[in-house]
Amino acid sequence: MNICIVYYSMSGNTAYAAEKIADKLNADLLEIKPQKAYPDKGMRKFIWGGKSAVMGNTPKLLPYEFDADKYDTIIFGYPVWASNFTPPIRTFIKENMEKIAGKDFAVFACSMGGGAEKSIDKLKNYLMINEFKSTLSLIDPKDKPSEDNDKKIDDFISKIE
């Protein structure tokens, strides 16, 4: 099974989880980044990011290489913004919707405390699918490592393998 983890990470928590998952699944990693970076400090971070997520923005992304034909499963990873998935993930899906149709999908969301389940439901609706192969919600996995997060990652992976 060939797997690609497509993720956006602002503070490093999503990247941390993506790397752990990729290592255990022998998956490829594709980090996507917007051409114009979001504010990453203070209240501007929450206001600008939350507004962008709620409004369904699709920012232009830095160039990336992605060959959908190489993969059976695509895992999306992102930080939760205002109970939503992040705009760079929205852009990636919009740009690749036809190419990824019919693939298996899984998702992990990193948050500071809440909104992950709602964001996962919103992503499911955006992808127009009935269910994910596996879902995972993590609370600050890089900043607050724990055995509980490691167990959640292992459970997430077991449903994909």
Biggest pleated sheet: 5 strands, parallel
Anisotropy-based shape: globular
The average pLDDT score comes to: 89
| DSSP summary, beta strand count | 5
Please estimate the helix content.
25-40%
Number of helices: 5
Compute the separation of the termini in Å.
Answer: 8 Å
Task: Find the structural class using helix and strand composition.
Answer: alpha/beta
Cross-sheet strand order for the largest sheet: 2-1-3-4-5
- Give the H and E element order: EHEHEHEHEH
Explain what the structure shows.
With 161 residues, the chain is an alpha/beta fold. The protein is built from five helices and five strands, in the order E-H-E-H-E-H-E-H-E-H. It has a five-stranded parallel sheet with strand order 2-1-3-4-5, sandwiched between helices. Helix 4 links the parallel strand 4 and strand 5. The longest helix has 14 residues. It is globular. The chain starts with a strand and ends with a helix.
